[in-house]
Amino acid sequence: MTAAATRSIDWDSLVAALGEIEIIRDPVQVARLSKDYYSYSPLLRADLDDKVADLVVRPANEAEVMKAAAVCVQHRVPVTIRGAGTGNYGQCVPLRGGVVLDLTKLQAVKWVKPGMARVEAGVKLAALDKQTREMGWEIRMAPSTYRTATIGGFIGGGSGGIGSITYGQLRDRGNLLALRVVTMEDEPQVIELRGDDVYKVAHAWGTNGIITELEIPLGPAYPWTELVATFPDFMTAARFGQALGDADGIVKKLICICAAPISDYFAALRTMIPVGSHCALLMVAEPCLEPFGELLKEFGGTICYQKSAQESGKGVAIGEFTWNHTTLHARSVDPSLTYLQTLFPADKDLKLVEHMYHHFGDEVMMHLEFIRVNGVVLPAALQLVRYTTADRLYEIIHYHEDNGAFIANPHTYIIEDGGRKVMDPAQMQFKAMVDPYGLLNPGKIRAWEQQQ
User: Fold this and answer.
1) 224-407 sits in which CATH class?
2) Which is nearest to 222 in space by CA: 143, 306, 309, 160?
3) Residue 256, pLDDT score
4) Where are the alpha helices (H) located in 79-149, listed in sequence order?
5) How far lies 275's CA from each of 144, 200, 264, 280, 405, in Å?
6) Is-contact 168 175, C-beta < 8 A?
7) Which fold has domain 3-102?
8) Are 97 and 77 a contacting pair, CB within 8 Å?
9) What's the pTM value of the predicted model, to 2 decimals?
10) Which pLDDT band, with edges at 50, 70 and 90, does 6 fall under?
11) Which end of the chain has fewer CB atoms within 10 angstroms, the N or the C?
């Protein structure tokens, strides 16, 4: 169905059929709830700025989700699922109008046990963490949008984040235990997925099932100290990041390395970080601060900011200057900036990182996030790019790929063209079963469009 086709739908009839479910029809609110942070990309702005839903449906529980699904299937209306809208790729932008299904009212924490939690999709990560930490546990990983992001949106569109230096990525077996999914069939049903079956829906952008509940593992809740350390040059900072990542005896949650002048964009930290610094933004367990200090000394680092775990939750949160918040802060100063998403190969010497740093200079400012991939610590990067033209942006992307770096292209709304490269056959088969009319987030999967 095209966006033009949705104009022929009897929207008043559809709204009446939804009964008591909350409906938003105000054009300003509908437009706002049809967007995410795709504006990071000048290419996506051109593609998506004019895309908007016809209305927003905001169910309060799973029963209302099922009712909304049934009504939308009956009217053959496209449905785009939304959490807090903190993603960057247009995942929750409706390409063909229709309904945005906002799940932020599904906020029940079903239960919390040692090492595990069962929650509804609209639960905010920070709210869940607050509750689980009272029992000595915390969520394993979170995006930099931790305070506002919902767990359903994170599982549907995220890949990792703060905590990935220890626990790897969401796709790694064991980081997601179960999903409860509402289908988009003529008679919608609820399906519980467990074990490896969860990956039929996880990180599929809401294209093959409406996640209503999740069961996730938790990690031990350490008292985290937040730190910023400066270094005499970028590669020393980067090699410190690698060494800290490899130091198994030092418990850490975040290793973010920023080349100058990136930290100059951090307005709230300007009085703490010297201008023009190459720096590391870190979260280290308090019991590990002494060995951490020895490692830092070895690399000539200097601490310029430190907040104890007791002070955490007050004022500045260091994690909100890392991952894609780094991009957010930089763009708030210079909106012409955009970014890349790069996975560098495992290499203790960081030779390819060093090459790219010198090759592109200030045009591509190096920002590394160290993560664990298949048991190996390596640098992912969300470099800041001084954007000039689309052609030049793709020259930069191709140069990275030609030299052995993996680019998860953040400038496309097509799943296969981003980090996937190909669509998971199991996800395609599951979509054919649970969304036979292709109503869920249409236009985002090239393979699906080609087979219709």
Assistant:
1) alpha beta
2) 309
3) 98
4) 125-133
5) 23, 47, 6, 14, 30
6) yes
7) 3.30.43
8) no
9) 0.96
10) low
11) C
